[in-house]
Design a protein that fits this description.
- This protein has 230 residues and is an alpha/beta fold.
- The protein has one domain: Ribonuclease Z/Hydroxyacylglutathione hydrolase-like (Metallo-beta-lactamase, Chain A, 4-Layer Sandwich), CATH 3.60.15.10.
- Helices cover 27% and strands 28% of the residues.
- It has a 6-stranded mixed beta sheet, with no helix packed on it. The protein has a 6-stranded mixed beta sheet with strand order 9-10-11-12-15-16, with helices on one face.
- Strand 9 and strand 10 form a beta hairpin.
- Helix 5 packs antiparallel against helix 6.
- The chain is globular.
- The protein binds zinc ion (ZN).
- Zinc ion binds next to helix 2.
Length: 230
């Protein structure tokens, strides 16, 4: 039976509490984890899976929506412990995730660091160090906009750039659901651009959010915020 399971993990960073929502897509032949938590969160992910009656070694694939540390942080550790797992990401994001190119978020954070006020310097430095601590991981399968994957009765890749250039969301027709990653976040239950000041292309981010909100799918799962029902 096809099942969509939304995980809930409490992560916190620099005194800021954050609740994240990786998703599991389960069908008769595969078990797909969408996004993979912060650096060091492998144990928390394993625990969240077990709480939902999923054994961590049952995960056959991990789809990474984009290169940010809170989405790929535990991916390398996951693969080391469960080497059979296949990793998927968009063709645009893959070289950043694999460490071939320097993370765009780190690039941005280092630029920002130069103009941060004194009282923010320490936080900025810590954030850069956090980004540097992300372990690169090779991507096995590159995804393209509009591509249809077989998971859960069909899973369509939607390129939703802006937050990062190759950010993807997933549409599951059978579930009437979109997994939005960071293309949309929820604030007090309302859809917003995730950290608009850090969007790498704010115009594209706005377009992508509109694209998802105008999509016929009834339910949108946001990594930061959880379920939004239209
Ligand atoms: Zn995020």
């Amino acid at each position: 039976m096809n099942k969509l399971i939304i995980l809930k993990l409490d992560m916190s960073y620099g005194g800021i509490r954050d609740e994240i929502h990786p998703v599991v897509l389960k069908d008769d032949t595969s078990c797909v984890l969408v996004d993979c938590g912060y650096v060091g969160s492998l144990g928390a992910i394993e625990e969240a899976l077990l709480q939902n009656d999923i054994l961590p070694d049952q995960i056959t694939h991990i789809i990474l929506t984009h290169q940010d540390h809170d989405h790929i942080g535990a991916a390398a550790a996951y693969r080391r412990k469960y080497p059979k797992v296949q990793l998927l990401a968009s063709a645009e994001e893959a070289p950043y995730i694999a460490g071939t190119y320097k993370s765009l978020r780190l690039e941005q954070a280092e630029q920002l660091q130069k103009v941060l006020p004194d009282e923010m310097q320490e936080f900025g430095k810590e954030f850069c160090n956090l980004l540097k601590s992300v372990e690169p991981v090779l991507i096995d399968q590159l995804l393209l906009d509009g591509e249809k994957l077989s998971f859960c009765g069909g899973c369509k890749v939607l390129l939703t750039p802006g937050h990062t250039p190759g950010h993807i969301s997933l549409y599951l027709p059978e579930m009437n659901t979109i997994i939005a990653g960071d293309a949309i976040a929820l604030e007090d239950g309302k859809p917003v651009i995730a950290n608009p000041q850090f969007a790498l292309d704010i115009d594209k981010a706005n377009e992508s959010m509109k694209r998802l909100l105008n999509h016929p799918a009834k339910q949108i799962i946001c990594y930061h915020g959880g379920i939004f029902t239209k």
